[in-house]
Amino acid sequence: MAEVYVSLGTNLGDKDNNLRTAVRLMQERIGKVISLSSFYETVPWGFQSEHSFLNAAACIETRLSPEQLLLVTQQIERELGRTQKSSGNAYKDRLIDIDLLMYDNLQIHSDQLVLPHPLMTERRFVLEPLAEIAPETIHPVTGKTIRELLELL
């Protein structure tokens, strides 16, 4: 079994329900949700919007490969109404966003997937919920704990 950390975010519709539904679907299709952070209200990052975000982090035990995991999370996003992923630096409002943050200690650089998530260390809205559930987890590239990375922001 692998231990996977994901970040969830939403800033449209019933945000609380969007996150809870995504977590339920991940539990059904990916594996056991070991821990789920509180929900954090945050301002948009990388773009302007009048809609605040609700963000969370989860740890899930899974037998899926990283590539299978990516496909399942993308399918969940589509089912919950996400029509397109952000590309480059063009961010926009969304019903749901599920980002794979870390998969055990793996480092992956493919056209489809980069792990650990390349921007996670720059995003308080990712690190704060993650530090709530995994403060002593070591980032496989930086060698720092999630708590240490949060303190650097």
Structural description of this entry:
This protein is of the alpha+beta class and 153 residues long. The protein has one domain: 7,8-Dihydro-6-hydroxymethylpterin-pyrophosphokinase HPPK (Alpha-Beta Plaits). The protein has helices spanning 15-29, 66-79, 124-133, 146-152, and strands spanning 2-10, 33-36, 40-42, 53-62, 97-103, 108-109, 114-115. A hairpin with a 4-residue loop joins strand 6 (108-109) and strand 7. Helix 1 (15-29) packs antiparallel against helix 2 and helix 3 (124-133) runs antiparallel to helix 4. It is globular, with a radius of gyration of 14 Å. The N and C termini lie far apart (32 Å).
Give the gist of this structure:
This protein has 153 residues and is of the alpha+beta class. Helices cover 30% and strands 24% of the residues. The chain has helices spanning 15-29, 66-79, 124-133, 146-152, and strands at residues 2-10, 33-36, 40-42, 53-62, 97-103, 108-109, 114-115.
The end-to-end span amounts to 32 Å
How would a textbook summarize the main sheet?
5 strands, antiparallel
Number of domains: 1
- In CATH, the architecture is 2-Layer Sandwich
Characteristic terms for this protein:
153 residues; alpha+beta; Alpha-Beta Plaits; five-stranded antiparallel sheet; 4 helices; 7 strands; 24% strand
